[in-house]
Amino acid sequence: MEAKHIFPSIFIMGLALFLVNADPVEDKRALLDFVNNLPHSRSLNWNESSPVCSYWTGVTCSKDGSRVISVRLPGVGFQGPIPPNTLGRLSALQILSLRSNLISGHFPYDFSNLKNLSFLYLQYNNLSGPLPADFSVWNNLTIVNLSNNRFDGSIPRSLSNLTHLAVLNLANNSLYGEIPDFNLPSLQQINLSNNDLTGSVPKSFTRFPNSVFSGNNISFETSASRVPPVPAPSMAPNPKSKNSRELGETALLGIVIAACVLGFVAFAFLIHVCCSRKKGRNEFSDKLQKGEMSPEKVVSRTQDANNRLVFFEGCNYAFDLEDLLRASAEVLGKGTFGMAYKAILEDATAVVVKRLKEVSVGKRDFEQQMEVVGSIKHENVVELRAYYYSKDEKLMVYDYYSQGSVSAMLHGKRGGERISLDWDNRMKIALGAARGMARIHAENGGKFVHGNIKSSNIFLNSRRYGCVSDIGLSTIMSPLAPPISRAAGYRAPEVTDTRKAAQPSDIYSFGVVLLELLTGKSPIHTTGGDEIIHLVRWVHSVVREEWTAEVFDVELMRCPNIEEEMVEMLQIALSCVVRMPDQRPKMPEVVKMIENVRRVDTENRPSSENRSESSTPPPPASDRES
Ligand SMILES: *[C@@H]1O[C@H](CO)[C@@H](O)[C@H](O)[C@H]1NC(C)=O
Ligand SMILES: *[C@@H]1O[C@H](CO)[C@@H](O)[C@H](O)[C@H]1NC(C)=O
Ligand SMILES: *[C@@H]1O[C@H](CO)[C@@H](O)[C@H](O)[C@H]1NC(C)=O
Ligand SMILES: *[C@@H]1O[C@H](CO)[C@@H](O)[C@H](O)[C@H]1NC(C)=O
Ligand SMILES: *[C@@H]1O[C@H](CO)[C@@H](O)[C@H](O)[C@H]1NC(C)=O
Ligand SMILES: *[C@@H]1O[C@H](CO)[C@@H](O)[C@H](O)[C@H]1NC(C)=O
Ligand SMILES: *[C@@H]1O[C@H](CO)[C@@H](O)[C@H](O)[C@H]1NC(C)=O
Ligand SMILES: *[C@@H]1O[C@H](CO)[C@@H](O)[C@H](O)[C@H]1NC(C)=O
Ligand SMILES: *[C@@H]1O[C@H](CO)[C@@H](O)[C@H](O)[C@H]1NC(C)=O
């Protein structure tokens, strides 16, 4: 199945919804009343005359288009209380996400009309007052995230009637009182940390780690009563905590047996999850690819705890897989390892999503590699924001760079125009990329390999310095077919298997990028007829015959007084592309050499704001990580 079908299928789905039925008029009115009465800093495309179901950002309708069933508006900058009698009229609503806004006031009482509400995300707002007293009106609630607000009062007992509740996050509020002893058999995750709760951990919650109660005044002295409360068919009813206070031999034995039983149950559960997940996966991807997936099903699949976008620390994006799948998307191009898309999320953030094909390693190896890549934080390295791994889909999420890659600037994209890059720009690209590469090579005890350096993987950061992307994928992908793969022009002669790329082969590829910057030519290009020209060979031949200015990009020849610098850079580039891997310089040396070229420049030429900037080294990575 072709990669480009994943996002368009979402469109088709939306289109299908639109064709089936007219607008849900009442719900539309309610949404307009809501948005017109709540100030927000980002504009929404909620145009009264456009169809809700197919056009309005953040809104999903039921299959027949008769009702609105999901409203997701994270990070829209809503400020103030939710206007009464607006969202409360969406009586078929199943999903509501208003997270990461500045919504204040009390929990809206009229939400009690939303009887089918299953997923409620209100975290990171400024809501205050008590939690709703009667949760039992929402008997379908599955995920409740009210964390990071200013709710106070006690935890309502009525939560214990929610048989489907799987996740409850009330962390970072001002809730007080004791934690009621609930029987919530479906509960998988809870976090009550950083409130003003008192007392002890109730028996039914002793299965959760202490960290979920941290930041309260809660005692953990009940370890003797830590008998597993998980309802297991083969287990006798829980012993009364009165009895287990005295840790007699029999009690100990009981605990040991219970622990064994629990271990077995957990194991069985895992097996079950694994097996049923496998089935679900095929269905998921099949449906997704055929565009048959109903929004409800997308949601229930993506709520699978083991199957979600993994974000890295310090990432402040507020979206999840479903948001991503529903985002409007355009194809950016076909990269070495798969298609790249630009996805625009509900809150207008643009991200790049790469869909990898032919990943050759298992989940654990993949995750390990992603952890290393995600930990690299440097102003000259494009940060990996998140990744997603399932059997059928591997996605990587990066920041989007609106100016496009250095390759697009130098050579024009898909026949588009080149962007003029003067010598200063090119020096900054080279220097930035070199620093980024040096940082990457320092990773993993100085052994980390980029594996896919080329100009289409280099972008410009906010200071217009080079910034390296697509790190560390080559080792986890199936080897590329050797003959004329897209990376061929950059590949060092010794590399026969792309998975076995080493640091010297990265240096070679980087040298090719430098040659590209100097000559303005693609690493592999054709002249007139069918003759294929390799940039490295071509530069060698020109330089060998007569050391002329002919190698340099004609555009650069217009800049005055830079010939010497260009020749120096050419020498650096040629030292990187020497045939013998062990004769190539190391990345930190390359950085030094390029910096030296620049220093000559700053001393000899009248200064400009750019130049003083370029001789300042970037702050060390550790400073930026805090
Ligand atoms: C709403 O859509 C109509 C027709 O599509 C268009 O004429 C109008 O300008 C739009 N209004 C806004 C505020 O975008
Ligand atoms: C709630 O969901 C059920 C099952 O999906 C549906 O039959 C019912 O009509 C829904 N309620 C409302 C008010 O839409
Ligand atoms: C939160 O709400 C309170 C009033 O309830 C207000 O004083 C405070 O400024 C609000 N905080 C933010 C960040 O809007
Ligand atoms: C909500 O729960 C009721 C019964 O508890 C069920 O019939 C209905 O299908 C559920 N609705 C949804 C949308 O899951
Ligand atoms: C709830 O919100 C917190 C804070 O944003 C977040 O860390 C957590 O992942 C959320 N939980 C769920 C299940 O969405
Ligand atoms: C649970 O719901 C039942 C009715 O469905 C009600 O009588 C009971 O009080 C509720 N329990 C709590 C703790 O609210
Ligand atoms: C609570 O707030 C702290 C500090 O702002 C934050 O580090 C922590 O992740 C928050 N906890 C949750 C569960 O959101
Ligand atoms: C709960 O939140 C706290 C921070 O508020 C965090 O340290 C802890 O790891 C969280 N626990 C779980 C299980 O998510
Ligand atoms: C914590 O709770 C205990 C009793 O539950 C009380 O004696 C103590 O003063 C409380 N500590 C704080 C810091 O509130």
From TrEMBL:
Signal sequence annotation = 1-22
Its transmembrane ranges are 251-275
**SUPFAM superfamilies recorded:** L domain-like, Protein kinase-like (PK-like)
Q: What's the superkingdom here? A: Eukaryota
Q: What is its main location?
A: membrane
Q: Which protein, by its recorded name, is this?
A: Protein kinase domain-containing protein
Is Thylakoid one of the keywords UniProt gives this record? no
> DNA repair: present as a keyword of the record?
no
Where does this polypeptide localize? Membrane
Disordered as annotated region, ranges: 224-243, 595-626
| Residues engaged in binding ATP | K363
Biased region (Basic and acidic residues) positions are 595-612
For this protein, the record's PROSITE patterns field holds:
PROTEIN_KINASE_ATP, PROTEIN_KINASE_DOM
Keyword vocabulary terms for this entry: ATP-binding, Leucine-rich repeat, Membrane, Nucleotide-binding, Repeat, Signal, Transmembrane, Transmembrane helix
Q: Where is the composition biased (Pro residues)?
A: 616-626
